[in-house]
């Protein structure tokens, strides 16, 4: 099972929006609505930001939103804030292969 | 308040076995509605899901194909924890290892992470 493909980096100024793509196949992203997104600050544990494509856990700001079209899922961060600067990883259920993560995207707030 | 507390050595010699433990508070390793996972992160390969254990009237395990022959994830009901054993390690296994709870296709609680270096 190959890792899902994410752009290595994305950036935006405070207040702007940034969208991160996560491309897989019909065996993972395209086959199930079980895409989740994780925010990872260095030295800390990853934090769940989005699950089941678009749902937000309690406590996650509504600036974070998720969507999916075909084999590509996306995470959008609106109204960028300094604390949003982190690495972001998508994850998808992949049937018999269980779970596959994306390659990761470093978001920089300019 | 669910918390996962990891423990284990940070240095393992090549060809030996990596062993880590994840102690659970606020939930039960024997819960019928969650699964207990191990994930690792390395600079070269990012996040990788390794395996999990869960209880549904009996114990089950699932492992990633790329470590399937070397990995064991075991529950310890007496201590409410679960463990990771990875055999025959090489420097490629150097990574930060995390335990995490899966409550239905999402990893909602994570341990603090343990840097494990494979080196002689």
Note down, in words, how this protein is organized.
The complex is a heterodimer of chains A (110) and B (120). Helix content of chain A is 0%, strand content 44%. With 110 residues, chain A is mainly β. In chain A, a hairpin with a 2-residue loop joins strand 5 and strand 6. In chain B, strands 2, 4, 5, 6, 9, 10 and 11 form a 7-stranded mixed beta sheet that branches. The N and C termini of chain B lie far apart (39 Å). By secondary structure, chain B is mainly β. Classes of the chains: A mainly beta (110), B mainly beta (120). At the A-B interface, strand 3, strand 7 and strand 8 of A face strand 4, strand 5 and strand 10 of B.
Largest interface, counted with CB-CB under 8 A?
A-B, 26 and 21 residues
Radius of gyration of chain A over all CA atoms, rounded: 13 Å
Low-confidence stretches of chain A: none
Total DSSP helices of chain B:
0
Helix content of chain A: under 10%
Q: Tell me, rounded to a whole number, the average pLDDT of chain B.
A: 95
Structural class of chain A: mainly beta
The major sheet of chain A is characterized as: 6 strands, mixed
Beta-strand segment tally of chain A = 9
* Secondary structure: number of strands of chain B: 11
Tell the overall outline of chain B.
Answer: globular
Say what oligomer this is: heterodimer
Q: Report how far apart the termini of chain B are.
A: 39 Å
β-sheet strand percentage of chain A: 35-45%
- Which spans of chain B of ≥5 residues are poorly predicted at pLDDT below 50? none
Helix and strand content put the structural class of chain B at mainly beta
Helix segment count of chain A?
0
Round the mean pLDDT of chain A to the nearest integer and report it.
95
What portion of the residues of chain B fall into strands of 2 or more residues? over 45%
Largest sheet of chain B: 7 strands, mixed
**Sequence of secondary-structure elements of chain A:** EEEEEEEEE
């Amino acid at each position: 099972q190959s890792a899902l493909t994410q752009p290595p980096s994305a950036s935006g100024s405070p207040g702007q929006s940034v969208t991160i793509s996560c491309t897989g196949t019909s065996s993972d992203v395209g086959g199930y609505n079980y895409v989740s997104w994780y925010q990872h600050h260095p030295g800390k544990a990853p934090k769940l930001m989005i699950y089941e494509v678009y749902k937000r856990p309690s406590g996650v700001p509504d600036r974070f939103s998720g969507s999916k079209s075909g084999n590509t899922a996306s995470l959008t961060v609106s109204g960028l804030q300094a604390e949003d600067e982190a690495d972001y990883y998508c994850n998808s259920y992949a049937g018999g292969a269980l779970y596959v993560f994306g390659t990761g995207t470093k978001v920089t707030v300019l | 308040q669910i918390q996962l507390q990891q423990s284990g050595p940070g240095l393992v010699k090549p060809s030996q076995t990596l062993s880590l433990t994840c102690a659970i508070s606020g939930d039960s390793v024997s819960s019928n509605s969650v699964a207990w996972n191990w994930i690792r992160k390395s600079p070269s390969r990012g996040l990788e899901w390794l395996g999990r254990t869960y209880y549904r009237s009996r114990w089950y395990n699932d492992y990633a194909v790329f470590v399937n022959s070397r990995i064991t994830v075991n529950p310890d009901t007496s201590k409410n924890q679960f463990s990771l054993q990875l055999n025959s390690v090489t420097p490629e296994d150097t990574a930060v290892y995390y335990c995490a709870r899966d409550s239905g296709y999402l990893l909602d609680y994570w341990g603090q992470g343990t840097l494990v270096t494979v080196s002689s």
